[in-house]
Amino acid sequence: MSDKKPKNVFREGAISSDFIGNSIYKHQTKTSIGAHNIFLGQVRADEIDGKTVAAIEYTAYEDMANQKFHDIREAAFEKFELTCMHIYHSLGTVKAGEICLFVFVSSPRRKVVFEALEYIVEAIKADVPVFGKEIFEDTSHQWKVNN
C-alpha cells in the first residue's frame, strides 16, 4: 500500500454527465490502455410501502469514508493490473434518475477491468460509511437499507 494521502472522492449533489465524460476523455491518449469499464450508480424511484422514492440524501463520515475509498483503491491496484481508477460518490440530495456513484477503471487487458470493477463496487457497498436517507414524493423519509 502506498503512503499517499486519501483524496476526497465526494461531490456535492448528482454527478453530471459532463464530469463523467471529462474524466473518461482524459484517458484517450494513453496508448498503454486496452480497456476501460465504468459503473454508474443511479438513484432508483423504488416503491416502498406504497410510496415512491423521489431522491436520496447522502451523508458520510467523510474522513473515515475517504480512507476506506483509499484503501479499496490501493487494494484494487495491488490485486489487478490497472492503469487508472476514478471513484466519486455524491453527498447531499440526488434525485431519482441521477448518478450518485461513478467508478472508472482502465487496464491493458479487457478481462481485468470487469473483474476489478465488480471487486471495487462490492467493496464500496460493504465497507464505506456512506448513508442514504430515502426521501419520498410525499416528503416523508426513511434511512436506506443497502441491498
Automatic annotation (TrEMBL):
Entry EC number(s): 2.8.1.12
GO annotation, biological process: Mo-molybdopterin cofactor biosynthetic process
Single GO term (MF): molybdopterin synthase activity
Pfam family, one: MoaE
Keyword annotations: Molybdenum cofactor biosynthesis
Catalyzed reactions: 2 [molybdopterin-synthase sulfur-carrier protein]-C-terminal-Gly-aminoethanethioate + cyclic pyranopterin phosphate + H2O = molybdopterin + 2 [molybdopterin-synthase sulfur-carrier protein]-C-terminal Gly-Gly + 2 H(+)
Pathway membership, UniProt: Cofactor biosynthesis; molybdopterin biosynthesis
Family of this protein: Belongs to the MoaE family.
Subunit structure of this chain's protein: Heterotetramer of 2 MoaD subunits and 2 MoaE subunits. Also stable as homodimer. The enzyme changes between these two forms during catalysis.
UniProt name for this protein: Molybdopterin synthase catalytic subunit
